[in-house]
Amino acid sequence: MSTLLSLGHGYSAQVLGRRLLAEGWQVIGTTRSPDRVQTLKAMGVEPLVWPGSSLSEALGRATHLLTSVAPDAEGDPVLAAEGAAIAAARHLRWIGYLSTTGVYGDKGGAWVDESTPLCPTTARGQQRVAAEAGWQDLCARAGLPLHIFRLAGIYGPGRGPFEKVRNGSARRIIREGQVFSRIHVEDIAEVLHASIRKPHPGAIYNVCDDDPAPPQDVIAHAARLLGLPDPPAIPFDEADLSPMARSFYAESKRVRNDRIKRELGVTLRYPDYRTGLAALLDAAGR
């Protein structure tokens, strides 16, 4: 039986997990919180509280490994705690590491692809570059089939702009020339699933849609779908943003996704934010 060990079994990994469970896979998912054990069980996932438990038994059973665990200022916690055990798991047929397009840094709205030099301008981006390098080093030394997925801004059920537009808290933050790339969570799962079916050890993939766009356009489109007026426009310099939100506006780039189509044969279900938002609204029953 094929078995996925999903480290940090969160938003994106859960969508992949549902697909694999439907195909008869076993999915082992880790969580930091004992309170989430029953939630994972209800999904059909075998829960494992980690950190706090050993991964040895789960690694011994796993055929595939996915890590969604983010690094911090101390480095990648999975590599720090379990690197030796993972290196010894030579039976793994596929390893996936979920990274971010933040590793490219600010490009002033220019296009980037997987060959673009990494030049992160935020601490989070720098931590991701270090984590990618750590996983590449470990897997190269152990001969393990690593695949890196650089995710753009994630949206999907429960993660869309509609609630803020409805309650009046949405704002169109205007910064001249600002563009982001995005990806629907179902398309993330499609890319991961395609890679599992057709592995290319050592590959790096940008995971994003076809339509990088200014964030204010997305908010305005969501309002129009709801039949509401455009939320207020606020210049970036006057916006009251959290440090995390402000850091997103520190970078502007357009991300190419040709490789997921060429190598993996992926056809995006939601190639732009318009189709993605319309689908979210339809699923919610308008």
Automatic annotation (TrEMBL):
GO terms for molecular function: 4-phosphoerythronate dehydrogenase activity. Its EC number is 1.1.1.290. Keywords: NAD, Oxidoreductase. It comes from the Bacteria. Residues 94-208 form the NAD-dependent epimerase/dehydratase domain. Pfam families: Epimerase (PF01370). Gene3D superfamilies: NAD(P)-binding Rossmann-like Domain. This is SDR family oxidoreductase. It comes from Plastorhodobacter daqingensis. The lineage of its organism: Bacteria, Pseudomonadati, Pseudomonadota, Alphaproteobacteria, Rhodobacterales.
